[in-house]
Each structure stands twice: as C-alpha cells, then as structure tokens.
Amino acid sequence: MAVKHSTRAHAILSASASSRWLTCPPSAKLNAEIPDTTTDYAREGTCAHELAEYKVNKLLGIDAPDPTENLDFYDAEMAECTDSYAQYIAEQISKYSDPVIMVEQRLDFSRYVPGGFGTGDCIIVADDVLTVIDYKHGKGVAVSAERNSQMMLYALGALELFDSLYDIKEICMVIFQPRLENVSESVISVSDLLHWAENELRPKAELAVKGEGEFCAGEHCRFCKVKATCRKRAEYNLTLAQYDFAPAATLEDREIEAILKKADALTAWAADVKEYALSQALAGKQWTGYKVVEGRSNRKYTDEKAVAEAVKSIGKNPYCEPEVLGITAMTKLLGGKKKFDELLSKYICKPQGKPTLVPDSDNRKAWNPAQNDFKGDFNYGKIC
C-alpha cells in the first residue's frame, strides 16, 4: 500500500535541501532542531504529487484509488499539469522495448550521506541508461537539472537499487515543471557521479550531520529555517552598510556594481528579518522602540449591485464597463464626498488591516496582546 505523501518521513540531510547543506554544512543541524511548518504552497504541491502518482500508475495499468475527491487542493490547472506529466512519462517509456519503471520509489543514498534517503517520483531503467524524473509543481523559479544536487542524490539512490542488475553507464536526470513550461534534462556518467559522491558529497555530509564546517550565506538561504536570525547571512548583507551615507553620484562604478550584485539578496534578508520580528511580537515579544499596529487598508463595496442601483436612481451611470466604478472615481462622479456618503455609505466597509510592526513614533494605536486575535481594538470605519 502506498504511503500518503503528507505522512512520509524526511531525512535530516534531505535531498531537497542538499544545495543548502552542501554549501553551508552546519545549517543542517540547526534546521533539524526547528519544527517543520507547512504552507499552502507546500500542501498544494503534495496534492499535485498524489494526483501525478495516481495518473502514472494508471498509465502503467496499476490499480490505485483516484485521490481527486480527497485532495485539499485541486483545480483544472493541476489536472492539466499532471496529465502532461503522465504523457511525458509515456513518451520516455516508449523509447525502450522492455523498461523497468518504478513510481514514488524510496531511494537510499546513505552510503554517502548518513541517514540519507528520499523519494524518486519516477525511475526508468532500460539498456545502459537510468532515468530519474522529478515532478515540481511550483512556479516560483525554474529549476535546472544540470549539476542539481537533489537529482544527483536521487541518482545515487537509484544506482544502489539497479547497479548490480544492469550495466548502467549514464544517468539522465529530468526535472518536469509544467507550470513554468520547464522540462530540464541533464545527463551524467556513472563515473562522474561517483567521483562527485566520494570527493565532494561524502566529506560535506559528514560535516553537516555533526553540525560542523563553515557557515556560508547565499541563494541557498531562501528556504533555511534560521535565515532571519543567521549571523553569517547578516554579515553577508551588512557589507553594503558602508555605502549607506554616500550619494549615488559619488560612488565609483565598482561600488555601484557591488551594490547591484547584492541588492536583491539584501532586500530579501530585510524582509525575512521583519517577518520574524513581527511573528515574535505577535507572540508577546517586546522590541525596544517598536510596536504592532493594524496595517492600512482600503475601503470597498459590500454590495456592488446595490451601489449600482443607488447611483442609477439619481440618473448617473455607475459603470466603467464592465465593472462598477471604484470608490475614488464614484466620489468624483457624484460630485464629492458629501453626496457619496449620503447615497452610498451604507454599502461601504473598511477591511481590517493586517498587523504590522512600526516604530513607537507611529501615531497608530498599539495592538493589545491580551486579545485573542487581531480584532476589535481598532475601529477606523465600518469593518467588513
């Protein structure tokens, strides 16, 4: 019986996080000490994998229950994406006369990585070629299979299964990412893969499992659980502080280039720190000089049909086809705020703003942490 994707165990030195712990070995142990959290994006990806597994099994003639009705996330796009994935698998299988296919196969690469294992979405073995295919439902960044450490770890695990049975000479690694129309393929020889495993992977994995080695900041910090409080990442980004008080016109070209190189990373780091500080403040942490307030929000209509009828009743056209005019445009149409409020105030509400962390000098009222949620203590208008 297949194990449900959402309940599967995960290795401390996981393949999916390998780009991080190979570059920053001590981050693995730090991340292992922090409980996992699940986002809607991750849950959506899990559902897509459940559906993809079912469709590939159906393609192979394997009897399996259709998970569609029990998925927390499902839409026409997911159906289309998983259909195209199954079609791609069918095309790969058709290239060979007698291939061996394994779906959602547990892959053990602990020969090189202590406790290392993962799950290969689809493994195809035929002739002297081993093909490892990974389905990715995300659409944030196109992922390349070229020298992709996650795929190389899966390849090592698949090689453990089949190397003694087949004379495998090369491995084809495929990342199938339909929402970005990205199908990335990369071929590596078995000898090159094993050389990487012995000379780069094994030494880094031994450091990572013990929490040793050097911290290193970079693109791999994106999904690190300690990215907001990591000192190395702070040092990496704060190197730009030396330029804070220099007018841009006085900077040399090399200085501007240095800033451009790190600007996106600096922005992302600052956002992570702010998000962490806010979450801690909402949990009761008091930051010196800062407070939590209700964020700003815009008024909106509660009943667009009623608004349209009210405006038409005084001989005005409420539409900017095909939609009802926005509040600012409608106020102008009616000749000002007084007439607008007189006619439409009962159809207007102001959504509650999201909590935000601001300096104490901000004149908005501080959130009262004694309340159970972020409601009730603010009243900047009729709440939706």
Could you give a quick summary of the protein structure above?
With 384 residues, the protein is of the alpha+beta class.
- CATH architectural category of the largest domain: Alpha-Beta Complex
Which CATH class of the largest domain is shown?
Answer: Alpha Beta
Give the SSE string.
HHHHEEEHEEHHHEEHEEHHEE
Shape: globular
Helix content: 25-40%
Strand content: 15-25%
- End-to-end Cα distance, whole Å, is 48 Å
Strand order of the largest sheet: 1-2-3-4-5
Task: Report the oligomer.
Answer: single chain
Radius of gyration: 27 Å
The helix/strand class is alpha+beta
State the total count of DSSP E strands.
11
Biggest sheet, open or closed, and with what strands and sense? Answer: 5 strands, mixed
Structural overview:
There is one protein chain. This protein has 384 residues and is α+β, with helices and mostly antiparallel strands. The protein folds into three domains: 5-210, Lambda Exonuclease, Chain A; 227-285, no CATH class; 299-349, no CATH class. The chain is 38% helix and 16% strand. It contains eleven helices and eleven strands. It has helices spanning 18-23, 27-32, 40-59, 76-93, 149-162, 190-210, 231-238, 253-282, 304-312, 327-333, 337-344, and strands at residues 100-108, 117-126, 129-135, 170-177, 182-189, 290-294, 300-301, 319-320, 323-324, 348-349, 355-359. The strands form four sheets. A five-stranded mixed β-sheet has the order 1-2-3-4-5. A hairpin with a 2-residue loop joins β2 and β3 (129-135). α3 (40-59) packs across α4 (76-93) and α7 (231-238) packs antiparallel against α8. Residues 374-381 have low confidence and may be disordered.
